[in-house]
């Protein structure tokens, strides 16, 4: 696993994983949303359009913020999988800290992209 710099969102995702506060993968993230456990959903920049639409709809319905950040291979490394297109952070404190770091642009938005993260904030949050 790559070493994360201080303030890097990758470090928080690693911490969430070690604490058992990540639901990695489409199925697990959907269940975390439906069970009310998800505090933040992260969708990879290179996730398919259907995946992005599905989670945009689900997060809006469940009033959970969604961030588009990183690439599937990078999220996979952070979650211990070959690839991961979507994950849900189930700890509110870690989710808030992750959103703050991503909004500040810390750690970039993935290995190759260099752009800004896309964060949806639903009006009813």
Q: What topology does this entry show?
A:
Blueprint: H1 9-18, E1 22-24, H2 26-34, E2 40-43, H3 49-62, E3 66-68, H4 72-79, E4 86-89, H5 92-104, E5 118-120
Parallel strand pairs: 2-3
Antiparallel strand pairs: 1-4, 2-4, 3-5
Helix pairs in contact: 1-5, 2-3
Give the strand order of the largest sheet, numbering strands 1, 2, ... along the chain. Answer: 1-4-2-3-5
Number of DSSP E strands: 5
Helix content: 40-55%
Structural class: alpha+beta
Question: Shape from CA axes?
Answer: globular
Poorly predicted tracts of residues? 108-117
- Figure out the total of helices: 5
Q: What's the gist of this structure?
A:
This protein has 5 helices and 5 strands; from the N terminus they run αβαβαβαβαβ. The chain is of the alpha+beta class and 125 residues long. Strands 1-4-2-3-5 form a 5-stranded mixed beta sheet, with helices on both faces.
Structure description:
The chain is α+β, with helices and mostly antiparallel strands and 125 residues long. 43% of the residues lie in helices and 14% in strands. The chain has helices at residues 9-18, 26-34, 49-62, 72-79, 92-104; strands spanning 22-24, 40-43, 66-68, 86-89, 118-120. The chain has a 5-stranded mixed β-sheet, with helices on both faces. Helix 1 (9-18) runs antiparallel to helix 5 and helix 2 (26-34) packs parallel to helix 3. The protein starts with 8 loop residues before the first helix and ends in a 5-residue tail after the last strand. Residues 108-117 have low confidence and may be disordered.
